[in-house]
Design the sequence.
């Protein structure tokens, strides 16, 4: 499946992008994929920062194992 995309850009930006080879389907695909990856990484770091700011004690090894077992049982039951 593919989607056709129509862009409206200022003339000077369009000329510069065209001269740089950025208006090809391949280049736009690469730009979009890189931006999606960048945003996912940013979201991951943002979530890590939020977790780091929580006032919680670390789980013990046995608590971690119990959580994993609970999730595994839940998935098997589905």
Sequence:
């Amino acid at each position: 499946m593919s989607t056709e995309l129509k862009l409206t850009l200022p003339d000077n930006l369009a000329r510069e992008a065209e001269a740089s080879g950025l208006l090809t389907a391949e280049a736009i695909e690469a730009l979009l994929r890189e931006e999606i990856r960048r945003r996912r990484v940013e979201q991951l770091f943002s979530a890590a920062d939020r977790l780091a700011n929580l006032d919680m004690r670390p789980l013990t090894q046995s608590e971690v194992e119990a959580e994993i077992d609970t999730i595994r049982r839940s998935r098997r039951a589905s």
About this structure: Residues 51 and 57 are 11 Å apart (CA to CA). The chain has one domain: 11-77.
